[in-house]
Amino acid sequence: MSPTYPDIAGPDTSAPEHPRLTVAAAARRLGIAPATLRTWDRRYGLGPREHHPGQHRRYSGADLARLELMRQALVRGVSPAEAARFALSAATLPRARPAAEPACAPAGEAAPDGGPRPDVGPGPGSLAGPEADPGGRVRVGGRMLSMPGAGRRARGLGRAALTMDSGTVRELLLGSVEADGLQRTWDEVVRPVLNGIAERWASTGTCVEVEHLVSEAVIAVCAARSLQASPAHDGRPVVLASVPRERHHLPLAVLAAVLAERGVPCRSLGADLPVDALAAAIRRTAPVALVLWSQSRSTSSPEVIRGLPVTRPRVRSFVAGPGWTNVELPARVTHLESLIDATDQLAQAARP
């Protein structure tokens, strides 16, 4: 029995027939590469249903609807072979006959055109938790993110991010948060994708725009969750800020949202906060705890911590981020190792 995907709409074959599109035009309509369409046709039989040898391929509206089912299944983390089976079985169209070559070769085996074949991942199964992908790679239009051991949600997010599909990125994030919470979504979905993007940037210098798109979507989802949270309890707040010259603050946005859900009062001050502004915020709010984020060694300065004003009662100081690794910290300053660690320690510090 073919799997069902209740959140993916089937093709509307009752709609008027659209003008038939070339491979390039159909690819633009779907937001994928023309080479991907040719691959789907060759390997899975997802080509034009009325193609005649010797003529240019032309995609009808019904063909595009079937391909859209394939694309939507892919961005939800389904393997290419399983997504193709779903698209073919869900569409009320005659099943196209694929070429004589096997639908999928073993992962890593070269295709006839010299390119690697897509990995065959696990079936759809349950989306309640992470499921490892042996290859851990995301492919869209000949591109991929390296995400060893990533689960289905992360693979889907990676595919949507690479196609710059911000709507689907937000939708997948919201679905993951609703199912598993912010903490698991960050650790098991967002971080693998961001690590894959960082690896791509380190090796090719590309994908900055993809990182920004994902970051903005995560910040928007976190802001929405913070607004939906119950009012925080009365008491001294936790202050979150990035150190001077540090422009990264995405993890602090996630931490602020998780603390809001725990009912912990929080003041998030964003990126690149000057020392005098940080000192002023401490004097005004008398926080119970302070967290300073540093992404790189070039921005992590213990002198920033030593120069902060002393308050009564005393502020508990924490640092977070890879920039603080192997940095000698002042006494009574704790390095938070993970989101779980940060949430637990800050919630305990802020307990009335």
Explain what this protein looks like in three dimensions:
This protein has 352 residues and is of the alpha/beta class. 44% of the residues lie in helices and 9% in strands. It has eleven helices and seven strands. Strands 4-3-5-6-7 form a five-stranded parallel sheet, with helices on both faces. Strands 1-2 form a two-stranded antiparallel ribbon. Strand 5, helix 10 and strand 6 form a beta-alpha-beta unit. Helix 3 runs antiparallel to helix 4 and helix 5 crosses helix 6. The chain is elongated, with a radius of gyration of 24 Å. The N terminus is likely disordered.
Describe the sheet with the most strands: 5 strands, parallel
Q: Compute the number of helices.
A: 11
End-to-end Cα distance, whole Å, is: 55 Å
Series of H and E elements: HHHHEEHHHEHEHEHEEH
Name the overall outline: elongated
Strand content: 5-15%
Widest sheet: strand order? 4-3-5-6-7
The Rg value, from CA coordinates, equals 24 Å
Helix/strand-derived class? alpha/beta
Overall pLDDT confidence: 77
Low-confidence stretches: 1-17, 92-136, 138-142
Q: Helical proportion? A: 40-55%
Write a concise keyword list for the protein shown above.
single chain; 352 residues; alpha/beta; two-stranded antiparallel sheet; 11 helices; 7 strands
Summarize the structure in short.
This protein has 352 residues and is an alpha/beta fold. The chain has eleven helices and seven strands.
Topology:
Elements: H1 23-30, H2 34-44, H3 61-75, H4 80-90, E1 137-140, E2 143-146, H5 152-162, H6 166-204, H7 208-228, E3 238-242, H8 250-261, E4 266-268, H9 275-285, E5 289-293, H10 302-306, E6 316-320, E7 333-336, H11 339-349
Helix pairs in contact: 1-2, 3-4, 5-6, 6-7, 7-8, 8-11
